[in-house]
Amino acid sequence: MLAVQTITGPVAAVAGGFTLFRLVQLRPIYSGLSVRWTLFWWLLSASFVLLVGLAGLIPELVSPAAKSILHYLLAVLMMTPAVSTLGARRHGLQAWQLFVVIPLILVLMWPVAAELFFSRDLRPLLLSGPAQAGYLAVLLMSAGPGLGGALTIACLMRLAASLVLLAPAAAWTATQQDLLPCAALLLLAEAEITLRQLRGRTSAVDCATNLRQQTAAVWLLFQDLYGPVWAQRFMNRMAQFERAERWSCSLQRSGFVGLNEQPLQDVDLARPLESFRWVISRFAESEWLERHLPFVAAGTSSDSPDAPPC
Fold first, then answer.
1. Helix, strand, coil percent content, the chain, rounded in steps of 5
2. Closest CA to 241 of 271, 284, 280
3. Of 22, 98, 172, 186, whose CB is crowded by the most CB atoms within 10 A?
4. β-strand partners of 252
């Protein structure tokens, strides 16, 4: 048992360090978008994994009771990136963090605070039934931005890591086992899958040579970053423009598609792309739009001779 406890700290620390390293590589992709706060909370939770793992290198430094509280705090922090994504619009973005994400952390940590203030028993944390139900309700809500899209597997990794960390405090395990290494490895897998997926999407954007390729690549990147919930709201807004302006195409999950499966011409995309750029500006700064939608901004419809080699 002692040997296992000696290994758990280094494994969690190494996994947390690698996760943090991979997440830092995501910064250029998230830069200029409202989901930059999602990455902020993600980096914070990964940093916490690293710190708790390092603390585990010195067993005398953290008591079993303090360790159980730290693990539950980490389980709460792991939900913050997805909750932040649910409010990821440029207008009101900071307010969402201040009045939704941070209060959510405080509410979920209230059972811990109550136990610390009103109980002198230094036993490991044991959550009540209502506290477990509250956590699971938020966990289910936070799954919205990830499930159903290209990053579903990554989302499931995060959900599994959250449940693994919750298990001892919820008395789902027979003993107070240190499951942090398992959760840390799941988070590392999530970061690796996400990085590979988003790098492929950004490569497709960079390699686009015309309007249709450019908008389709940007649209797929948006869906990966914001999830099916925001993608559906995006399409609903575009459908309103479509009905009002009587387009000959509509925005689907794969991109713009001609009505009645008719092939699209460049002239058919002129007005839809103006609306597309306007809607996506609710989530992206002007510099990001100029960098990722140059053909739309310039109104170019032919192959670009200056396109980067792919």
1. 70, 5, 25
2. 271
3. 186
4. 255
Measured CA angle at 296 (ends 292, 298), to 5 deg? 105
| Rounded Cα–Cα distance for residues 251 and 258 (Å) | 9
Distances (CA, A) of 237 to 224, 272, 275, 279, 284: 18, 12, 9, 8, 16
Give residue 302's pLDDT.
Answer: 43
Pairwise CA distance, residues 70 & 58, whole Å: 15
Instruction: Kindly provide the residue ranges of all beta strands, DSSP E only, lying in the chain, ordered along the sequence.
Output: 249-252, 255-258
Name which of 227, 276, 217, 228 is nearest 249 in CA terms: 276
C-alpha span between 292 and 168 (Å, rounded): 46
CA-to-CA distance for 186 and 179, rounded, in angstroms?
11
Cα gap 69→63, rounded to integer Å: 10
One-letter amino acid at 229 equals: V
d(CA 150, CA 267): 31
DSSP state, 245? H
Average pLDDT over residues 36-41: 96
pLDDT value at 26 more than 90: yes
pLDDT tens digits, one per residue of 207-246: 988 888 889 999 999 999 999 999 999 999 999 999 999 9
Q: What number of other Cβ atoms are within 10 A of residue 45's Cβ?
A: 24
Residues 6+ apart with CB under 8 A from 154: 146, 189, 190, 193, 194, 197
Strands 249-252, 255-258: pairing kind: antiparallel
Give the residue among 187, 214, 210 at the shortest CA–CA distance from 202. 214
